Description:
By secondary structure, the chain is α+β, with helices and mostly antiparallel strands. It has helices spanning 19-28, 34-42, 54-75, 87-98, 119-125, 167-189, 194-197, 206-209, and strands at 109-117, 140-147, 150-157, 212-213, 216-218. It folds into 2 domains: 14-83, no CATH class; 108-219, no CATH class.
Amino acid sequence: xxxxxxxxxxxxxxxxxxxxxxxxxQLIDNSDTRDKFRxxxxxxxxxxxxxxxFFKHYETNWVHCFANKLLSFFEAPRNPLxxxxxEGWLNCHILTPLIDDCFLTCEEVQVHRGEEMSFAxxxxxxxxxxxxxxxxxGHKIDILFRIDDTEYFGSETYVDEDSQNSKPISYKQxxxxxxxxxxxxxxxxxxxxRETARDIKNIITYETCRYRIGTTWVG
Length: 219
């Protein structure tokens, strides 16, 4: 970016305020016990006289459903969150309702979960392939976000309680390589001019790849 003389502060973040975020505040406000939180969840989040609209109410409903699911875990005789859960369990019961379901309102974004092969890494691994050579496979990523055939985001899930587990290191390395592949492919599609560089939202640095949601590494 320095070479292009583009001055941009990517650390600026404007909080989003909408019905869903306000509902989160309502749930949290004075809900310092499970009983109080349950009573909050039992209150209707849509006025009784107002018909349900997916486009207007889905995000609030998504918050309600995920909060209800988490609270149910804590209300259960044995909280399943205290078990030594597998990556599959975490993906199914926590990350899918938290992340995947959040994007149902985004018509353009396709969420691909379950060791999906990355187009970007396939392209990079086969750059020097001769026609007679076998095509190499790309990285398999736990979750990929695509618009058409372009990837903008990826994440890997692992359980980090096992001290003998070497996956955290390899997962981080794979994700760093994957996000670099995605950025390279995006720049190529945009022909990487000074003007198109301004349109790039996926600015990848090591620090962004260190951000975690629970036990999920994201980039």
